[in-house]
Amino acid sequence: MNNVFIIAEAGVNHNGDIGLAKQLVDAALVAGADAVKFQTFKADQVVTGEAERAEYQKKNVPDKDESQLEMIKRLEISFADFKELKIYCDRKGIAFLSSPFDLESIDFLGQLNVPYFKIPSGEITNLPFLRKIGQWHKKVILSTGMATLGETEKAIEILNEAGARDLILMHCTTNYPTPPEEVNLLAMKTLQQAFGLPVGYSDHTMGTVVPVAAVTLGARVIEKHFTLDCSLEGPDHKASLEPSEFKDMIEAIRIIEKALGTGIKKPATSELQIMKDVRRSIVASCDISAGDVINESNITVKRPGTGISPMMWDIIIGRKARYDILKGMLLTWQMV
């Protein structure tokens, strides 16, 4: 990846509707995303009937009596629908990604030939899940939300041993929305230094400031939840960006990419001409006769910077004028 790879995390914001999923693909493409990502799962293989919804899910889905299983069953779309979505994305020219949440979904997505396996944070301690993904020998984007450095190291080890060697680590905080004080962007640097792998950032904060800041710290992948309308009912809509906001975020990231540059400290091309206009040269502050000694009383520094640099001040002092120098003239080495 040369440029920052930007993933529009549609997730389950299709609300179980393939038509809405295609609209999300279209909107992500218009916004400028490199990929649109969904979530592939068989609800019965992911949660038990007794599992409660997370607090943010309870807050965003008003049915107080609905279990987590009932909720995600409503948001499940079929493998056939995902095949249709993959074809749709290919035709539109945007990468199709989806995070699997069970072993059957891993094999399905592997056979669908997704370019990356995106491992959600909740699966970083799921050994059989990690091993299954590794066996597909594909590129892996591993989210590390809720994980310690030790847990991350173990997950990398399992993936490597199973056959996955091309990894990108995603720092994130698994809280929807994440308050800024819990983001800890500097942990990206820790991950990079600890494992020598490219890093990215999966964002759950409100707005676009934090993901843009992550790019300045070296994020090579940015993932952000994406919806057509934040007021839609569902667990993730309220912590997602609408299309215009997502477009603004991408435009800001592309500007930051250009602004980061090479890291080599040297004048920019546009500065070379300006340098002559705003830097200074050593100038005669009064008429100097041939044979006069150059001293601090008969020279000064003024623009433009096309003559002898003021950095040569100490070398010029004490020399004699070879011929008459008029007040205001830029000194040259031939004059002294």
Automatic annotation (TrEMBL):
GO MF, one example: N-acylneuraminate-9-phosphate synthase activity
* Domain AFP-like: from-to ranges: 281-336
InterPro entries associated with the record: AFP_Neu5c_C_sf, Aldolase_TIM, NeuB/NeuA, PseI-like, PseI/NeuA/B-like_N, SAF, SAF_AFP_Neu5Ac, SAF_PseI/NeuA/NeuB
Highest taxon of the lineage? Bacteria
Listed SUPFAM superfamilies: AFP III-like domain (SSF51269), Aldolase (SSF51569)
**One BP annotation, GO:** carbohydrate biosynthetic process
NCBIfam families, sorted: NeuB_NnaB
**Stated name of the protein:** AFP-like domain-containing protein
- Give the classification, highest ranks: Bacteria, Bacillati, Bacillota, Clostridia, Thermoanaerobacterales
